[in-house]
């Protein structure tokens, strides 16, 4: 600090006032008095931030009803009593990957299975295409196809129920 202490104090007070009047948070100044004599001043203040307002509640969207389950003509579409979650059905065959489900080996061909068909363990139920690879989804056990839960060409998620076996 220079030899004129009173003028330095007045200078710092003026900087603090400038900080307050202009709603600044920090101000830094270097005042040179000579070759080896200078004054470095940094004046700052903390600002108290008001708490952010709580976000407005986002209205919950009701999911659309599930698409109609494809089934063979003239065959009743077996539904679990009470319309329960098909993923919880003990006969649910779920998708092992994310992809696109196909019910037949190629467009226009007969589907792998239809509702009411008896299947054996390891029999292909449908195909899930993932990354340009066609993955056959085999039946985990022998049984009867009770429901087909996906449409041909529909996207499927990992763990999504595809078929219900009885």
From TrEMBL:
Transmembrane segments: none annotated. GO terms for biological process: fatty acid biosynthetic process. Residues 51-100 are annotated as: Disordered. InterPro entries: AcCoA_biotinCC, Biotin_BS, Biotin_Carboxyl_Carrier/Decarb, Biotin_lipoyl, Single_hybrid_motif. Residues 90-166 form the Lipoyl-binding domain. Keywords: Biotin, Fatty acid biosynthesis, Fatty acid metabolism, Lipid biosynthesis, Lipid metabolism. Residues 52-73 have a biased composition (Pro residues). Pfam families: Biotin_lipoyl. One of its GO terms (molecular function) is acetyl-CoA carboxylase activity. GO terms for cellular component: acetyl-CoA carboxylase complex. Pathway: Lipid metabolism; fatty acid biosynthesis. This protein is a component of the acetyl coenzyme A carboxylase complex; first, biotin carboxylase catalyzes the carboxylation of the carrier protein and then the transcarboxylase transfers the carboxyl group to form malonyl-CoA. This is Biotin carboxyl carrier protein of acetyl-CoA carboxylase. It comes from Jannaschia seohaensis.
